[in-house]
Amino acid sequence: MKKITKICCIGAGYVGGPTMSVIANKCPHIVVTVVDINEDRIAQWNTPNLDNLPIYEPGLKEIVRESRGKNLFFSTEVDKAIDEAQMIFISVNTPTKTYGKGKGQAADLKFVELCARNIAKVAKEDKIVVEKSTLPVRTAEAIKNILDHTGNGVAFEILSNPEFLAEGTAIDDLLNADRVLIGGDDTPTGKAAKNALSKIYENWLPKERILQTNVWSSELSKLVANAFLAQRVSSINSISALCEKTDANIAEISRAIGFDSRIGPKFLNASVGFGGSCFQKDILNLVYIARSFGLKEVADYWEHVVMMNDFQKRRFANHIIQTLYNTVSGKKIVLYGWAFKKDTNDTRESAAIHVADALMEERAELVIYDPKVSEDRIYADLDYLETRSPAENRALLKVVSDPTEASREAHAIAVVTEWDEFKSYDWTKIYELMLKPAFVFDGRRILDTQKMRQIGFNYYKIGEA
Ligand code: UDX
Ligand code: UDX
Q1: Which CA distances in Å does 203 have to 22, 27, 52, 197, 357?
Q2: Alpha-carbon distance 173 to 66, whole Å?
Q3: Is residue 109's pLDDT more than 90?
Q4: Please, what is the average pLDDT of the chain?
């Protein structure tokens, strides 16, 4: 196996961008080129003003500043980068299929397949191909088939190297990864390829944290990790509904069970529902795979994690409607937040989209403030649902940049993302500007119940009566 001096990554998204930036930063001896077919995206990665990078992640711009132009490059010259690299990461998106067999559940692999065909066409020397995109189990095999049968007699080793970074903490997660998973064949060349990739991560991570497995275990582990994490959120959210009917408090329950070292304290925050590009997609994928192998009970079991999440989003919206005297028609409601979690501008599957849609169905007039999400993105998210025409979406919903002013004459505010800045707002001033009674619906449990009630708010916190 040749020494790795050049890496290419296809896909400059939320995964490819930060991951390659960190690899370049930690491996100055390797030239890393990130390519993407989207010219605008590449132009944004190359922007002189680092505040205009296409994705927002704490710590990312500092790393890009140090490495870009030295050994980190962003380019649209896909074929050239593939040709020059000894190792190629595939980090393109794998959305849930919106058509045909497996519609609504299976992953759409057309972009991955396109990448594989492109690599096969261009490659003149042996290469290691690393799947970074989350993929259904046995995709590596499909990639291998394409490469072996359409290639120019070039030998390919396919590795699965799933990404476990969470958005908003991507850089820290990459720098201090709990573990890195590398799946590959147990043949001599497969082992050599796994070791070559391991060597890259060993530049900044202890070797014990780099786990080698077979390809399918690695692919399935990624789906299972996300399914378990999402399941914890759905589990605590299911109990939040029960708490609201009784005198129990969800924070006290999370704390009480989190002290059990077998359960652990993380991922027990009740919320308006999980979002993000991975949880729902990966669970549906798992459900699809289980069902396709005839494992109905396994499929049904995991599908309920997603059903519980849908219930939680609906429940939050319904609670707002019921509290506002069963009608929100013509009422101004402000949503604080649109991103699926704090510290990211990503909105994929964000609970906010579904809460907004439900309120707009009841003809509420919505005003949205999010510190990092653009107006275009918000309208695109709503238009994508196709619940109503783009013109109606724009008539019913406005996006603003002043959160305090937004509250003027509003009936209610709903907190749907846990941005830290929401905690430090002048809530007394906001109260004065709002219509009375002034309602706050806290879907993220970030505000102080006692303080909010003292100010005069009619304050609801998810998971508390
Ligand atoms: C995606 C998947 O959502 C995730 O499951 C997987 O783990 C990694 O890839 P993400 O990086 O967040 O995550 O996706 P996205 O931000 O959409 O970036 C993908 C990029 O690939 C886009 O910029 C797109 O233009 C690019 N792309 C897509 C190509 O360059 N070539 C293609 O053929 C298809
Ligand atoms: C997740 C996985 O954590 C990561 O390992 C994988 O690589 C990609 O998918 P991400 O979706 O970026 O990462 O963010 P994560 O922090 O996992 O949050 C997902 C969603 O769950 C968010 O909407 C978040 O607000 C919600 N959540 C999380 C809760 O509602 N409560 C919690 O206690 C934790």
Answers
A1: 11, 7, 29, 11, 47
A2: 19
A3: no
A4: 95
pTM over 0.85: yes
Residue 278 annotated among the catalytic residues of the structure: yes
Q: What is the pLDDT of residues 323-333, one digit of tens each?
A: 999 999 999 99
**401-427 burial string, b = 16+ CB within 10 Å, else e?**
eebeebbeebbbbbbbbbbeebeeeeb
Res 459 pLDDT > 90: yes
Q: Span 441-452, mean pLDDT?
A: 98
Which ligand 2 atom sits nearest the alpha carbon of residue 418? Answer: 25
- 3-class SS of residue 107: strand
Q: Atom 1, ligand 2: which residue's CA is nearest?
A: 166
Ligand 1: residues with CB < 6 A are 10-16, 36-38, 41, 91-94, 111, 114-115, 132-134, 163, 277-278
151 confidence band (pLDDT: 50, 70, 90)? low
pLDDT over threshold 80, residue 137: no
Nearest ligand (C-alpha, residue 54): 1
Residue 276 C-alpha to ligand 2 middle, in angstroms? 7
Q: How far does residue 340's CA lie from ligand 2's centre (Å)? A: 9
What is the pLDDT, as a whole number, of residue 1?
Answer: 63
420-426: list long-range contacts, CB under 8 Å, 24+ apart.
420/342, 421/371, 422/336, 422/337, 422/446, 422/447, 423/447
Which residue from 341, 418, 420 has its CB within 8 A of the most atoms of ligand 2, so it is best to mutate? 341
